[in-house]
Write a structure and sequence with these properties.
Creatine Amidinohydrolase, aminopeptidase, 35% helix, X-Pro_aminopeptidase_P, Creatine Amidinohydrolase, Chain A, domain 1, metal-binding, metal ion binding, 19 helices, Pept_M24B
Length: 604
């Protein structure tokens, strides 16, 4: 299996490790230190060797930061993890705060004293983050001190070694464009910004640019590496040579110079000494990168990573690959749902059993490269934990009489999938049906939306929430994230969220996943992936409109739908979606599963 169910969290580790860490800070003359959930690439996915926040606190979520001062400490997480953090972390050692509502900077402002030294690892904090931290420290009369050798690493016994996942070439037939052509496009973008070179820190940007994939982090085919791309001339890829076979190295050497990661900072200093104007993304590049360039004598041009937007706008080959991946995945998913409907009502199934079986069906396609993230298999109250990760310790039987939430995805060479279904197990209460239907109405509103060119995800986000708001309900996460093509299941810059400020463009792929999570009871989420497309002209309309093509092909459980709450248009959408699911997926199924699918996709 690609997923394991080991228990990663141990709240009891917090006190002794915090004490050990404080002793190391005192030895180094520091009054405090910041530990983010980040590695040197500032990505969402980090290898075990960089899971410092988890080692120190026990928190295993994908976003957060801890601060340790002499007598105080705290951990900051966003709304997805407010329940999880209290289950994984000793609140007596690391009290939890909401990353947005109670930000780290406010907490520091109330505690830092004149003359104190607050340390940070400059490769683990972005240029933008450090600016804010410097302001807070200056106002308090404290010093923000960059520490090149992370003090936590000195006390982390048994720290895993950095990964050495082998790099593979991604076929041009699936990439849709040669690496040479991509490099030429990015060099033009660099010139347009009046820069001499660009530094790429995001492994998915590098993977896309050079048409390669890796295996350095769980469930996402990323090669951990850095790159510099000059406006003219050959790029340089900084990657551990042990990850490259002879054939892969030969192919890459036709595109780029190859250097070891140990030469990265020297390469940055070289750009500085040559007086180059270097483009960096201040929201992604570590402070140490900016420092190496400017101390060498170079100057910075701050702009968005020039790879992000072209990577997000899928070309026709990538779109066709995603469609094929979703149809393949739909067959496995229908097999799983049919099996689940037989087994779950007996009361003999648990969360791990469901996750295992779903991965088994996906593996049965013969094309599965990995799952795209740890399956969120949430029974009862575990379903109310948005990013719940089932372990042997937390595993619960799936109860009859409550909805079951399962959020999962797959990595195929031609595409990445991500789907959530909330499934009725036994009879559902009127309240459960109402709440699920309110979520469904929001899901349909996004899927059916037509919007003018230039519309952002923030402008669409309200559509997913309005019916929940009318009932005094909401969900504490974004409505949708971007999705890569056999890359990251969470891809920027596009998103449907209050913070989604990037205009949606044809070719972008996003999730559509409103939800509702009554704490301690159950969770509801309905998620499909949507491709932004050019919409058919509207009669009498004056503007070019965009819309969505739904890529995901799996039935939505109508046993959890209160039909009287749906408008005629919403009912038509659901029936039309189910008709398409059966027509496309049914012919690919065995007779038993096809008969089951026909039954669950009947019009309501």
């Amino acid at each position: 299996m690609f997923q394991n169910f080991d228990d990663l969290a141990d709240p009891s580790c917090g006190a002794p490790r915090a004490a050990l860490f404080r002793a190391e800070l005192k030895h180094r003359g520091l009054d405090g230190f910041l530990i983010p959930r980040a590695d040197a690439h500032q990505g969402e996915y980090v290898p075990a060797s960089d899971c410092r926040l988890q080692w120190l606190t026990g928190f295993s979520g994908s976003a957060g930061i801890a601060a340790v001062l002499g007598d105080e400490a705290a951990i900051f997480v966003d709304g997805r993890y407010t329940i999880q953090v209290r289950e994984q972390v000793d609140m007596g050692v690391f009290p939890a705060h909401h990353l947005i509502n109670e930000p780290l900077t406010d907490w520091l402002a109330g505690l830092l004293k004149p003359g104190q030294k607050l340390g940070f690892d400059p490769m683990l904090h972005t240029v933008r983050e450090v600016r804010k931290l410097r302001e807070v420290c200056a106002e308090a009369g404290a010093d923000l001190v960059a520490v090149e050798e992370n003090p936590l690493d000195s006390v982390w016994e048994g720290r895993p070694k950095p990964p050495l996942g082998q790099v593979q070439l991604h076929p041009e037939s699936l990439a849709g464009k040669s690496a040479n052509a991509k490099i030429a496009d990015i060099q033009k973008a660099i010139m347009d910004k009046k820069a001499d070179a660009c530094v790429l820190t995001q492994p998915d940007s590098i993977a896309w640019l050079f048409n390669i994939r890796g295996a350095d982090v769980p469930h996402t085919p990323l090669p951990l590496s850095f790159a510099t791309v000059p406006a003219e001339g050959r790029p340089t890829l900084f990657i551990d040579g042990r990850k490259l076979s002879n054939s892969v190295r030969d192919a890459l050497e036709k595109l780029t110079e190859i250097e070891e990661p140990s030469g990265f900072k020297a390469g940055l200093a070289g750009l500085g000494k040559a007086g180059k104007k270097v483009l960096i993304d201040p929201g992604l590049a570590g402070e140490a990168i900016a420092t190496a360039i400017t101390e060498g004598g170079g100057s910075l041009i701050e702009a968005t990573d020039p790879v992000l937007l072209p990577k997000a706008i899928k070309n026709q080959s990538e779109i066709e690959g995603m469609r094929a991946a979703h149809l393949r995945d739909a067959v496995a998913y229908a097999q799983f749902l049919c099996w689940f409907d037989e087994v779950a009502p007996t009361g003999q199934l648990d969360e791990i059993g469901a996750a295992r079986k779903l991965e088994e069906f996906r593996a049965g396609t013969g094309a599965l490269k990995d799952i795209s993230f740890d399956t969120i298999s949430g029974a009862g109250p575990n379903g109310a934990i948005c990013h719940y990760r089932v372990s042997e310790k937390s595993n619960r039987p799936i109860p009859v009489g409550k909805p079951f939430l399962i959020d999962s995805g797959a990595q195929y060479e031609d595409g990445t999938t991500d789907i959530t279904r909330t499934i009725a197990v036994g009879d559902m209460s009127a309240e459960m049906k109402r709440n699920n239907t309110l979520v469904l109405k929001g899901h349909i509103a996004i899927s059916a939306a037509r919007f003018p060119e230039g519309t952002t995800g923030a402008q669409l986000d309200t559509l997913a929430r309005i019916d929940l708001w009318k009932a005094g309900l909401d969900f504490d996460h974004g409505t949708g994230h971007g999705v890569g093509s056999y890359l990251s299941v969470h891809e920027g810059p596009q998103r449907i969220a209050k913070t989604g400020t990037v205009a949606l463009k044809p070719g972008m792929i996003l999730s559509n996943e409103p939800g509702y999570y009554p704490a301690g009871e159950y969770g509801i989420r309905i998620e499909n992936l949507e491709l932004v497309t050019e919409a058919a002209p509207i009669e009498g309309g004056e503007r070019n409109m965009l819309g969505f093509e739904t890529l995901t092909l799996a039935p939505i459980d109508t046993r959890l739908v209160e039909v009287s709450l749906l408008t005629t248009g919403e009912r038509d959408w659901l029936n039309g979606y189910h008709k398409r699911v059966f027509e496309m997926v049914g012919p690919l199924l065995d007779e038993k599963t096809r008969t089951w699918l026909e039954g669950v996709t009947k019009p309501i």
